[in-house]
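Um, can you check?
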Amino acid sequence: MSGPPADQESSWPPSNYSPADAAVDLATYKNLRRSIAVRSTVAVLVLAALLAVRTPLGGVCLVIGGLCGVLNMLLSMRANERLADHRSVGAFVFSSFLRVGVFAIVPVGLALHGPWWTMAIYFLGFFMPLLLYMSSVQRAFRRD
């Protein structure tokens, strides 16, 4: 999908976008949010169980990263919804800094108390929800 040419501005919503379309898109978004949280958690738990056979610490780091990733995804989505509803950019930026700070401290703590590679495994779990969301969102909102 390509965007509009650089010399043209796009108008949102499109002229043929109805309130019924918006309601359907909102329901799709909420279902997608829920399913990605569940699918990410299940995928991380399965991968962590497989990894724990080889290295138990790696399995624990993957679970911690996955759970932090799901929590970050849900908090980010909620912050985006509040931004759209209330237009409070300051609160959005503040909550973003808090999220980045909290979720950046966790892998550093893992790496300080264990091998350096625990940070990489944490990030594998942390970005699992984003990868699943990326692979699902285009299919979910496709208009034919």
